[in-house]
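Q: What would this complex look like in 3D?
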Amino acid sequence: MAENGHYSLMIHGGAGMLESLKDPKTASRYRQSIHRILEHGREVLESGGSALQTVATCATLLEDDPLFNAGRGSVLNELGKVEMDAAIMDGRDLSAGAVAAVQNIANPIQLAHQVMSKSEHVMLIAEGALRFADQCGIEQTPDNYFYTPERIAQLEQARLNDKIVLDHDETDSEDEAQKYGTIGAVARDLTGNLAAATSTGGMVNKSMGRVGDSPIVGAGVYADNETCAVSATGYGEDFMRTLIGKTISDLMLMKTLDGVQATAAGIDYFKRKVQGRGGVIVVDKNGQCSRGLTTKKLIHGWIEKSAESMVGFD
Amino acid sequence: MAENGHYSLMIHGGAGMLESLKDPKTASRYRQSIHRILEHGREVLESGGSALQTVATCATLLEDDPLFNAGRGSVLNELGKVEMDAAIMDGRDLSAGAVAAVQNIANPIQLAHQVMSKSEHVMLIAEGALRFADQCGIEQTPDNYFYTPERIAQLEQARLNDKIVLDHDETDSEDEAQKYGTIGAVARDLTGNLAAATSTGGMVNKSMGRVGDSPIVGAGVYADNETCAVSATGYGEDFMRTLIGKTISDLMLMKTLDGVQATAAGIDYFKRKVQGRGGVIVVDKNGQCSRGLTTKKLIHGWIEKSAESMVGFD
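A: Here is my prediction, written as structure tokens for the whole assembly.
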């Protein structure tokens, strides 16, 4: 039996981003934001809030911070538009909600939460998701909320780079790594329930209608009270082909590994099968925190078993 | 090592459909169609075609047959429109392609195949997928190709039933079961490669933009040469929450079960975790065929290790 009376929380702000982290000022902004959001999550958990409520709160705060590629800070696609994906999952009963390719929604994670709780579906996309948002009373947010000067400059750079990208080794390319932004949160509450949330603006200059792993249950997000809660960030297609969240959960269930062992074994599988690029954060049913990555950096933070909050970049 | 020199193929045409199968004439039409399409698949496999080519061919033929809820026979959504989902996966390297909520595409499985082979993405949806179809030279098919009198009558019936559906036990409702149409194909070729394909029109009267399990790698479709190829049909949300394809594959990989044992264990998991409704067809790396279901019927057929073709309804 899992012991209760303590809580754990992990959040991430994307993999890659070597270039940004080389600047001490930017690194410090990431550090402060991760720390602040962990402490918000702690308040929810300490006051008896559920894991689900905690990951929804943390993901919302990460979406609101323009530092991260989700919600407000979402990158622009090939048409210069913001199209966002998000999903949330409740480890108590495997209920889940996801949205993909939504525009003008300030907090896609909250829309995904509504899909989970107010519809009979798991996934709603594009215009259908916006129609549902309207039914839920979620208002559309104007374009200028999303279009920051940084994101416009970044798209212009990506369009230029597209012409020369074939000369690069993608894995080592810092520009490429820069594209893999996502945010996520996984938590275990005081009563041992698990939940996970993931949200993203996708890849800079991505094709219209491209859906990555973030809104795919089992790939970018997974939570099962029997095993663990997982959120992934990286090259979405690698995660979609290997279902990394489900793989780590299955390694716990079928091989009786703990969360730390299953995360390591999951990353081995990810490398062996598809030379996967990215990282994961995992809280297991006992509140153990772990992270695994194949990129050089993973912006993340954690509170393990009610201890002090920690921030890490690798 | 898996033995070579023989091939296996399974196809399905949906779960549920009790009402239709009670009519001997309709049952006979299903039987003939399944048999005919299996024999087409055999020709591809006997002439040395790949598993991938075989599942693409069989899924295309199933889409073309208005008997089945995919391609031409797709059901209508709440707006009286056809919105289709499809995915294909190659067990050699886990490459995959998927499309969701596409309209006016005669063969969504072929568009999914193009996403796999000609884009760097796994999943393209809605208008973005149609834009890609255009780039690939896939022409749009007019509405009247899809809108058969049967499908229009069925939508009217579903709209009427919606008012009374709460009085029904969903699992036992034949009307409800009728909604779970999907088509799928899984194959092992002469050299031991595996592939899977799944395609659907979704659920009658479904919400606009609702995506089910069919285009989700790991849920409605999965193939890995190390384990097995899986296609699912049923209540999509149940499969999305449990990732049944990936579960069966992981049971083979992590518990060293064979395909028959893993299918049975996967169905147990599906029932235990979400009281799942639906069925799966599985060909394992050795060419063993199996099927599992929690509904009363599963329209399917198989050729095991180059033997004669068989058709089953349960």
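A: To summarize the key features: The two ends of chain A are 32 Å apart (CA to CA). The interface with chain B takes residues 93-96, 100-101, 119-129, 131-132, 206-212, 216-219, 224, 236-237, 240-243, 246-247, 250-251, 254-255, 273-274 of chain A (CB under 8 Å).
Q: Very helpful, thank you.
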